[in-house]
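Appendix B: complex inputs.
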Amino acid sequence: MDNKEQYKVHKEPFYQAQGDEVELYEAAYAARLPVMVKGPTGCGKSRFIEYMAWKLNKPLITVACNEDMTASDLVGRYLLDANGTRWLDGPLTTAARIGAICYLDEIVEARQDTTVVIHPLTDHRRTLPLDKKGELIEAHPDFQLVISYNPGYQSLMKDLKQSTKQRFTGFEFDYPSAALEAEILSTETGLDKAVASKLVQIGQAARNLKGHGLDEGISTRLLVYAATLIKNGVNAKAACRMALVRPITDDADIRDTLDHAIEAAFG
Amino acid sequence: MDSAIAERNEELEGYWTMLGCKFAQVEAVFEGCMTEAKASLSKEGLNAYIENARFIGKMGRGAEPLLVYLEEAPSVAHLVGEQALVDLREFAHYMSTHTNFKAIVPFLQTSAAVARRLHSRTVFTKYIELVRDMMNRTSGSVHGHHTTFPSPGLPHLLKQAPNLLGALSLEGFRNWVEYGITYYNHHPERQEEYFSLKSADAIAVMQRERHGTLLVDNERKLDSYLRALWEDHDYLVPYSVAFDDLRKPMPYFTGDGFRLPDVYDDMVGVKGIDRYRAALAHMAAHRRWSQKMIVDNWSPFQRASVEVFEDSRVDYLACQRYPGLRKLFLALHPIPKEEDLQLEEQGISVFRLRLAMLSRAILDPDYQYENPHVREFVGRFHDLMATGEATSAQMASVALSFIARTRGQRDLSAKMYFDNTEVDYRDDNRHLWIYIEESDEDEMFEHLDKRQNQDEELHALPPRHYPEWDYNAQNYRPDWASVYEVLHPRGDASKIDNLLLKHSKLAKRLKAMLEMLKPQNKVRIRYQEEGSELDLDVAIRSLIDFKGGSSPDPRINMSHRTDGRNIAVTLLLDLSQSLSEQAAGCNQTVLELSQEAVSLLAWSIQQVGDTFAIGGFHSNTRHDVRYYHIKGFGESWGTEVKARLAKMEAGYSTRMGAAMRHAGHYLKTQQADKKLLLILTDGEPADIDVHDPQLLIQDARQAVNELGQDGIYSYCINLDPKADEYVSDIFGKQYTVIDNIARLPEQLPQLFIALTK
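Resulting structure:
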């Protein structure tokens, strides 16, 4: 049981709802429908799932997907040990056994053949066949599968298969409105509201450049970084340059423009 | 005359005698000139002034030089020091004795204006040296010793000098002059055009040498500025500020974009780029917050007042949004002097000054001023803005009452006070006005001007312009060569088939070599969970992990895949006149041999399966570089292509750099790991409008470098036995000289094979 306990979210994460997503998620969970969250990087997708796990008081198992991940990394594998072999459950199997919310972050980063293993868990069957072990796991009644992906920056090659997409209910996230975002910054870091709204203004300037030299605008996460630095006593302009501008671009023209935006916003 | 002299006081008479001049025109103005000279020169300076004047008067070039000297010299001496008087005289004398006496008057005439730009004597003497050098190099001589023809460009240069120095540093001025001397030394009319700033070239070079921040260099930055901070975007169109002295054009925007000056110098500590940003911020603020107004019934004064209030309103809102802008605006906004309001008593209209004070006071809370009206209206402005954004119409009503309240007696005076009242970053506000009644001035006949130039369209595609490298100036001549691309005419395709048949033996041999080129390299893919072989290294590592108790990596296998060959080739053929010569040691022309060689090569490349294109080029001056399309990357090696190849003809000259740039521009867009540009030529780059043999060689070398930067490997196959003299200058080590041309058909494909193996 303590296995289950370690995946619990114990402290309430700060999450500022942008709309009715919390209620909708609760409804989806009540029906145990699989959920897909999409949106640009750093807009609060993972935070939202963490918050929901806390709110529903369910364990949360997060898997960061990557290109080298194989199906057995999700499901589990046999390990050799001194007396022969031993089966080790993968995170997906564990979640299905203990009744956790399994969150596959950035699912498109994993190879398409890998993601197919989640199919039987996401429809009416709610089972996970472990063919190597010869076992069929019935998912725990509390189990739910959540995936996230960012439709923005991935290449054409990395898109979800239709057969995968059509197994999920979807939430679309975007950066919050200016007032809301400023509030998020000040609640998250304790930064003064006025400074926070200036940070948001810079963030929005950068978001206007998406597709005109930037692949992605400045995310809420980066704004939180900048706010944290400022709160810790770093000079505001230096903090912005360090946390907001330098990470997102190597293009001198864009960098100049954003630096100027910082100057303009802070005066 | 005697009576006139008697009237002057003794001192003046002394100077007049010293001058020893009998010109009546000079006598008429002498007194006036002396008054000015006395005001600005010391005693010794005055003596020098007269002494040099005496010399100039006795040079035998009439009264004009002396008159101009007397008028201009005092200001020159005042600006750059009295020794400059000697410089003036010496150089005037030099011009006089070197056939350029016609330039004396323009020289002296503009000397004061030039001195005003240059400030110091050292720079001024440098300027004279520069002009002297230009004169020496452009004056014609018959026997090498005596200059016999005056420099055609010199008088024009001297007339333009103040203008030029206003826009260029002395360094830039020197480069500009240098360019003119280099390219137009042997063409008097062109030289005149250049130095009088009439030719497109002269303006382009001047633009290049300008100091300051050029709009063209920063367009992208400014575009992203608009998008990022103002969520706005439009075309940024430059206008030139170099040619309007009287009325400087202001930034403005219309339906087709923002108009900005082509260059901004740094000003009062504000960088040029920030001045652009300030101007754009102001205009973007107008676009966001201003509404149009009907203004038929407003007087110019009322309009000016509305403009200032509305400008202040949008600046205010912009600063509210971006507080940092205030610093920029404050630095660029002039600080009007309130004490000058008293000038009204002297009949000067200070209405602009009042408005400027108002504008400054709104922008700058620290601005010190007394005027109660301005104070009241600044208050009214802030009261209005406290209610929110306000509208243009609300602002206009405040502005109109400001004019009604403050109108002074002298506002209509012709003498207008302008100092410190023009706000540099603001636009001319043409977007604010709506006129209901059309003025009578609209151009009814405009449509008649739109005559279509129905010139015979010679060329299939519009020309592409490429720069050319000028090694003398170490710089590019912008858009110098015009390349017209045309489809090569067609001939009989069977000719090529026959040629291939003739070489069928060779083809068979080549085929064996080509087989070797086909992709067969195995590439190992490691770290596979399932693969064709066990990867021992990884397997052992896994075993160690396992023995050590940690979880072993299961990806212990490896597999193979065959490596692809991914090359794009462009074959560029020199089709210049020399190709039609008979090849040494055989009875075919070089053209025929090339044809055979190219056919074989094309066939070979086709066999290997690389993507390839064929183009031919020749040129007839820089205005007409022909690029013949023979085979494109997408076309297959079929009848169509063979037909074009069969019709190959020789003519004109070899402007290699432009053709290479054009071929490279297609090759660049190909998706391939390796890109190869093969150039088959029989001689060095040359063209009839270029006299310096090195120029096109250096240009071609530069083209090779440019292509190299784009990942294109250039390789030259040269048929000229004397090629060793220049080909390595262009291609470094990337060339082959084929001495025995008869063997070209055999060697060319082999060379390709060797290059791509």
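The domain at 493-516+566-756 of chain B is CATH 3.40.50.410 (Rossmann fold).
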